[in-house]
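During the no-cost extension, the postdoctoral fellow (Dr. R.K.) reprocessed legacy sequence entries with the updated structure-token encoder. One reprocessed record is reproduced below for audit purposes.
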Amino acid sequence: MKCQGWRRYGGAFSLGPVRWEQCDRKPVAMLKVRQDGKDKWLAACPECWTECIENEITILEATPIKSEEKTE
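Re-encoded structure tokens follow.
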């Protein structure tokens, strides 16, 4: 599973066209967020989770993702 955060590069005050890239980090939680009046569940790494908070995105719920590692 991959983090479902996206980052914008380029555009406005930097050189080149706008380019969006999906975060490639491992998610640690499923976040239920409200954007544009719609609720959705998204997998988030710690950095993207922090960006949600900083960008004042409404987080309704957070559920940890259990590790897929096997214990012997």
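Residues 37 and 66 are 29 Å apart (CA to CA). The mean pLDDT is 89. The remaining legacy entries will be reprocessed before the final report is submitted.
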